[in-house]
Amino acid sequence: MPQPQIGDRITICNYTFTWTKAHLSKDELEPFRQKYDQLGAAALERIQTIRQETNTKSTDLYEILYDNHANDPILSQFWTEVHSVPSWVNWAQIARGQQFFYRYALANIVGFALQGFMAENSAAPGVVEVLVRTGGFSTRMLLGRLLETFQWLIQVTHCIKAIQPGGQGHTATVRVRLLHASVRNRLLQLCQRRPEYFDTETYGIPVNTLDSIHSISTFCCNPMWLQLPKFGSIPVTPGEVDDYIAVFRYLAFVLGTPTSYFETSEKAKCVMESMLVHEVRTTETSRVVAYNFVECVTNLPGVFRVSSGFVAAGSRWINGDGLCDELRLERPGLVYYLAFRGFCVLVTCLARVQRVIPAFDAVVVDLFRTQLYNGIVQRKSRTKFDFKYVPKIGSKTGKEAYGTSSTAGVSGLVGMGLAEMVFIGVLAGGGLMVGGSLTQDRQLPEESKGEGEGISYKL
After folding, report:
1. Other residues' Cβ atoms within 10 Å of the Cβ of residue 337
2. CA distance 223 to 104
3. Distance between CA atoms of 252 and 237, rounded to whole angstroms?
4. Beta carbons within 8 Å of 157's beta carbon, 6+ residues apart
5. pLDDT of residue 335
6. Distance (Å, whole) CA 459 – CA 456
7. Cα–Cα distance between 241 and 453 in angstroms, integer?
8. Domain ranges of the chain
9. Residue in 1, 37, 35, 40 with CA at minimum distance from that of residue 278
10. pLDDT tens digits, one per residue of 118-177
11. Can you give the residue ranges of the ER-bound oxygenase mpaB/mpaB'/Rubber oxygenase catalytic domain (predicted)?
């Protein structure tokens, strides 16, 4: 879209806000497309050289970094940077921010899947073009890639010791930084052989600084303004917003990403909105990733399986029909919207009870913290964020049907997963209590969409 002017009202992905002088123009953002984490790239080069010179069999980049950082000036500089703690870090605030993820765990997870991944990642051309070249976004591999992302998110939010230098989450973040350098290095090598393999003029350097800023924004800002507001009157406080953004400001530092854009929640919100304007646009690759995502989640085992109608209803509810039509998602029937409405009732009521009863809130936070850690971080297939999805010339993810689905061609209640049936039951049982707030249109009122004064969300 053309560069907005100050005072313009903008609606993108079912979200409306006013453009101000605090927002970032395309000219301000564009140079970041050709910039990247140079220290991370230099550290990777040294690690690769050390492997060759010493015939090291280990492929664990972090292990080689750990063993050699004391004797190599570049690795020492990298090690010192990632283990230093900026003066603006407040560990008490970060500990509170970590709790935010678990306090609203159900809403955060579904919001990330249906908005953060379906809308933001799949509709950001530079990001998605890298993703489909790493091979892990085929239908059968996608679940593993999503679990790897959630593993990192759980590791960095598990407890304060986990995110501090030397902690499990901190180490995982350093591994991710080295993985990003590896992906970038490999893609650039392939571009030297086949310049048409990845269009660096259009998309920039692979895994560039703009992509990194966008990713941090997606993790810390989207839950506040693009996801949780769509679920109901979830009582998120301004303090919680500040705390959660502080977590990812520190993680941005460890990842070698500029942190100034996340100094305050107001600046971070402007970055998020600027990214919506300048970076979100669908392509054929976007439609491939969206299709594979639906195929993946509709073929999950047992109680985790949901129907394509539920995914489409939730995506349209959160992101709006415009984007979802561009992604070619189906237009589901009323029953699927009722199921998603039931989910909204569940997470809204849960959040409100937690706000009224602090002891119950502590139980919920501890429950999700423990169960998610045990189920995802402790799983047998957990990752060390090694470079296993290696880009190759001629290798690019396309649309892939999962196979014959047990619900193929089945619609309505018969084709729904167990969770969807539960959500319909919740809606039926709780309709009288929250009916007033659910009779409104799923479009947010103008005053709650982007003006930022209040953090009281309504459907």
Report:
1. 18
2. 10
3. 23
4. 98, 101, 102, 163, 169, 247, 369
5. 92
6. 10
7. 12
8. 38-84, 90-445
9. 1
10. 888 778 888 888 888 876 667 777 888 888 899 999 999 999 999 999 999 999 999 999
11. 103-347
What confidence category does residue 225 fall into, taking pLDDT thresholds of 50, 70 and 90?
very high
Give the length of the chain: 459
Per-residue pLDDT tens over the stretch 336-358: 999 999 999 999 999 999 999 99
Q: What is the 3-class SS of the chain, one letter each residue?
A: CCCCCCCCEEEECCEEEECCCCCCCHHHHHHHHHCCCHHHHHHHHHHHHHHHHHCCCCCCHHHHHHHHCCCCHHHHHHHHHHHCCCCCCCHHHHHHHHHHHHHCHHHHHHHHHHHHHHHHHCCCHHHHHHHCCCCCCCHHHHHHHHHHHHHHHHHHHCCHHHHCCCCHHHHHHHHHHHHHHHHHHHHHHHHHHCHHHCCHHHHCCCCCHHHHHHHHHHHHCHHHHHHHHHCCCCCCCHHHHHHHHHHHHHHHHHCCCCCHHHCCHHHHHHHHHHHHHHHCCCCHHHHHHHHHHHHHHCCCCHHHCCCHHHHHHHHHHHHCHHHHHHCCCCCCCHHHHHHHHHHHHHHHHHHHHHHHCHHHHHHHHHHHHHHHHHHHHCCCCCCCCCCCCCCCCCCCCCCCCCCCCCCCCCCHHHHCCHHHHHHHHHHHHHHHHHHHHHCCCCCCCHHHCCCCCCCCCCC
**CA 452 – CA 238 distance, rounded (Å):** 10
CB 101 within 8 A of CB 364: no
pLDDT tens track for 59-77: 899 999 999 999 999 999 9
Closest CA to 227 of 218, 214, 216, 239: 218
Rounded to the nearest angstrom, the gap between the alpha carbon of residue 183 and the centroid of all alpha carbons in its chain is 18
Nearest to 45 by CA among 188, 168, 165: 188
Query: Is residue 312 within 8 Å of 324, Cβ to Cβ?
Result: yes
Residues in contact with 370: Cβ distance below 8 Å, sequence separation at least 6, in sequence order: none
Taking the alpha carbons at both ends of the chain, their separation in whole angstroms is 28
At 171, list the tokens.
Answer: 């180490």
